[in-house]
Amino acid sequence: MPKRILVTGVGSAPGFDLARSLQQLGCKVLGADADPHAAGLLLPEVTAHILPSAVDAAYRAALLRPCAKARPDAVLSTVERELPRMVALRRPLADLGVTTWLPDRDAVAACGDKARFAVVLAEHGVPTPRTVLPDELDRAPDGPLVVKPRHGQGAKGVHVCQTRKQARVLCELIPAPIVQEHVRGQEFTADCLVDRAGRASVVLRYRLLVKGGLAVVSRTFTDPDAEEHVRAALAATGVTGACCVQGFIRDDVEGPGRVVITEANARVAGGFPASVAAGADYVGQYLRGLFRQDIDHSRLTYKPDITLTRYVETLTSSEGTTR
Length: 323
Fold this sequence. Notes:
The chain is of the alpha+beta class. It folds into three domains: 4-100, 3-Layer(aba) Sandwich (Rossmann fold); 130-181, Dna Ligase, domain 1 (2-Layer Sandwich), CATH 3.30.1490; 186-309, ATP-grasp fold, B domain (D-amino Acid Aminotransferase, Chain A, domain 1, 2-Layer Sandwich), CATH 3.30.470. It has ten helices and 14 strands. A six-stranded antiparallel sheet has the order 13-12-9-10-11-14. Helix 5 crosses helix 6 (114-123). The radius of gyration is 20 Å and the shape is globular.
């Protein structure tokens, strides 16, 4: 029987593409999102569910309700803020026969809290941008700065400024902000799959064109130094399952400091189809790991110099008021 998978966050690229990829592998997909107009809810043959935001008190009951009724085989979250709630729901979901594959609480916190992430990487000697909280702005590095939400996804609320004074103003406007040095270089993402024994496969891709935080043009590449730093970040955070790591390769630096890791996410990245296009059986092996089968890391190798360009497509049109 085909597996029935509940995918949350189908209104954004990670959830949308994961839902469609699972369908292509023969899975029956239940799509969930807090936005009733989320594109993934309109995918053909997807059973749509509207959930409240992860910060809503009703989230727990709202997630368990369709799981109790529809009894999916597993649930996969692609929303950063959902992950702590999901970790707390592992036992109730298991009691309903719903499988999850989630990192532990510390790993979720290290990836979901960008201030914590900077501390964890610094403690493990992994190069990452110098990071301060608003009340530590006097310790911020000189030069261009980045102000961003401490808990964020999809580059929402990220701003670059030139001075500490400007950063101070931005900190008044952005909820729970952090301030980092602005790193210049070639931006990249690593699509990673870490099995339950801690062995990781890493697919590197340049973010050649980024819009709204999403890499709309990606090209795979190989770089032993970048791969080593990605693996170090994975080990430092302790994240497992499908995840992604972002960073920069600085052209003006050789040796230590050439690669800087900026963040990690305990979910699939929005641009993971580029890794699939390059030959990595990313979603297929993710499914194997989800259901406690051995991951075949030899099927996660990939070709460099494969470029993937995303585009906007029309899923459906309708007349009158919907939902």
